[in-house]
Amino acid sequence: MNNSWHRAFGVYGLYIYNDKLLVIRKSRGPYRNRYDLPGGSLEEGEGLTEALQREFAEETGLKVIRKNQIGTADFKLPWSWKQHTHVHHIAVFYEVERVEGALAAPIQFDGQDALGTSWISEEEVAQDQASPLVIEAFNWIKNKQCSAEPVVYKEWRVVEQSEEAPWNQNG
Fold it and tell me: d(Cα 79, Cα 58) in Å, to the nearest integer?
């Protein structure tokens, strides 16, 4: 069987406070019930920074500014969706800073894929609980560089609700 690829492109923010990373819990997609970074795809005519700020506010309740662009990474993994067998996720990472707002449960609307937020340290997260973006974020925090080559996951499992990691919503 030939692989059919879905290409996903998005912008994501790393908000670090007291040596912890702010993450969201995904409600759908290949990262369902895993920790993921706040962010997502661009809307029609939207620039990278605009999309980052909109997505961050929608998913966390925080208004942020972009401190710097960290880099770009891409991930390839098996995922059955529509007619596709795999996803190629291209992510642009930014370090962000909060300018106002408080963490809040995301308002649910069609297209919203975040269920809540949590602060995590690298020691608190395992690969089977996190999206590749979170793993790459901790790589950047530790080494100050993003992977130069695509990260390929030959095996990938979408986590079902009953298997989800302990969740500290808005903690």
Answer: 25
Place of tokens 């290409």: 7
- Say which CATH superfamily domain 5-157 falls into: Nucleoside Triphosphate Pyrophosphohydrolase (3.90.79.10)
The pTM assigned to this predicted structure is: 0.91
Per-residue pLDDT of the chain (171 residues; tens, 9 = 90+): 588 999 999 999 999 999 999 999 999 899 999 999 999 999 999 999 999 999 999 999 999 999 999 999 999 999 999 999 999 999 999 999 999 999 988 877 777 788 899 999 999 988 889 999 999 999 999 999 998 899 999 999 988 875 444 444 444
Query: Residue 55, SS3?
Result: helix
CA dihedral 52, 54, 55, 56 (to 10 degrees): 80
* Beta carbons within 8 Å of 167's beta carbon, 6+ residues apart: 25, 116, 118
Q: Residue 52: CB partners within 8 Å, gap ≥ 6?
A: 11, 12, 13, 39, 64, 66, 94, 96
Instruction: Count CB-CB contacts under 10 A for residue 134.
Output: 24
